[in-house]
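User: Show me sequence and structure for the first protein, then do the same for the second.

Assistant: Starting with the first protein.
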Amino acid sequence: MRIIVYSMLLLFIGIQYPLWLGKGGWLRVYEMEGQLADQQAKNQALTLRNAKLSGDVKDLKEGTRAIEERARIEHGMLKEGEYFVQILPAEQPLASSKP
C-alpha cells in the first residue's frame, strides 16, 4: 500500500514540475507578462515621440513659424526692427572663507 501512495505522490510531483518550472510554466508566463508590459510602455513612449517628430516635420514643410522659431533659438537670428536683450541672473555673494 505504501508503494502505491509513494508512487502516486511521485507521479503527482512529476506532473506538477512542468506546470510550475517548465518551458510554458507559470513562472515563465509571469516573467513574460512583465517583459510585455515593459515593451508596451517603451512602444507608447516611442509612439509619442514619433507623433511629435511628425508634427515638427509637418510644421517645417508647411509653415514658416517653426523655421522662424528654430532660427531664433539655434542661430540667434532676429527680425528686422527687433532688439536682443539678455537678462543675467543676479550675482550671489561669495561665501566667505574662514581660516
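Switching to the second protein now.
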Amino acid sequence: MRTESRPALVLLLIFTVLTGGVYPLVLTGVAKLVFPRQAEGSLIVHDGRAVGSRLVGQPFSAPRYFWGRLSATTPVPFDASASSGSNLGPLHPALFDAARARIAALRAADPTARGPVPVDLVTASGSGLDPHVSPAAAEYQVARVARARGLSPAEVRAIVSRHTEGRSFGLLGEPRVNVLETNLALDDLARPGAAR
C-alpha cells in the first residue's frame, strides 16, 4: 500500500505546485507583458485614484449624468461578483414593468425628449455589468445632460463623440459610448479653467 500511496502523493504535490502556482504566475506575467492595461482590470484612473473599470458599468441617476443600461445583478446594481442577467423571458410581466418604470423615469427627467426610447436604456445586458450605451441612447440623453449642466447640446455631443468607440477590429459588435468615461469628461469640463 505504501508503494502505491507514495507516487500518488508526489504527483498530487507536483501538479498542485504546477497548476496552482507556476501556471497562474506564468499566465499573469505574460498577460501583464502583452496586455498590461487589461491584466490590471482596465481601470479608469481619475485624479490619481481608480474610479472604476472600462469593463464594468456604474449606476448614475442624477440628470446631469448620462445613464447607462439597467443592471440585473443583486443585491446591488453593477456588482461584478454577481454578474448575471435577470433570466426573465421576453414576455415576462416583470420585464415589462421594469421597462415601463425606466421609460417613466427617462420621460420625467426630460419631458422634452420625444420619440422612442432606445431599447438599451430600458433593458439590462446579459451580464448586468455593461458599461456602454449605444450612440442612439447617448443622443437621447444629450438635451437633458446639456440643460442640467448649463452647456450647449453641441458641447455635450462633442464629448460623447470623443468617447464613442467603433466596432472591435472594424467589424465586431456595434459602436458604443462608455458612460463612465463620458461622465468623467463632463465633470472635468465643469472645473474652473477647463477649456470648452
